[in-house]
Here is the input.
Amino acid sequence: MKIIIDTDPGQDDAITILLALASPEIELLGVTTVAGNVSVGQTTANAIRTLDLAGRADIPVHAGAARPLVAAGVTAAHVHGATGFEGADLPPPSRSADKGHAVDFMIETIMRHEPGSITICAIGPLTNLALALRQAPAIVGRLARIVLMGGAFSEVGNISCAAEFNFFVDPHAAAIVCASGVPLTVIPLDVTHRLHTSVARLARFRALGNRIGNIVADWLTFEKRFEAEKYGTDGGPLHDPNTVAWLLAPDLYQGRMVNLRVETQGELTMGASVVDWWGIGDLPKNALFLRTVDADGVYELLFERLARLS
Ligand code: BDR
Ligand code: CA
Here is the structure.
């Protein structure tokens, strides 16, 4: 399956890219970057550093939006560190980004391929995707699916009391994507908060026997320091890799089709996911919203795949 990863690396974003590269079922057509965890300059450098790690200089990287559509923009340097990659010591990027804006790359790539052949894996704020949908509405009928990490139902919020980070940073973009009509799979905090980066799991990454296993363990050890304390769990959550894991092994997840909208007006609730889980409104079901996960199964998949990278 052909995918584009739209991302703001971020340690968990980088692990998502590595999981895709380690999986022969997936053809990664390109990586597009957006401001989110850190600035777009830094997320672009980090995307290239991730591809460098896997020896994949052949995969294009296109830099995208430097700020949200309307909102002021916030980062998550308090979670991911000033570079977005704190925890592991990586060399600087081997190259600059490819020419052309991320939004143009997305549109051109989607329009050039067979209808229904491309899936977007969106693991940062949804600014690029919203811009692409506005600029070229024809992509709606050409995409197979958007699989995104964002939102929350019972876990509610991780950057504000009411909202998950990716939706909060660019709520207007998230609202556009949710209303787009493209088949949508949503992986919210309800899932990602079940995937604790426990001490035992970090040890399994270290035991993979390759450089990447150690780097992944170092990255997650850094994130865990902040989040395990915050949530009182054995390790922090693991967010973005669930998008690619769902594409590879959907049976590890359960959810249901719901109507999903994103709050763009609320003073206290900006970016909140409004999920009609109980079918209260007579509203169109626009998203497969996942709620539960076989956490051990996802980690086994990660161990098995990342071990393949030299
Ligand atoms: C999301 O926010 C970012 O910090 C992570 O990379 C993930 O995409 C989780 O709320
Ligand atoms: Ca991310």
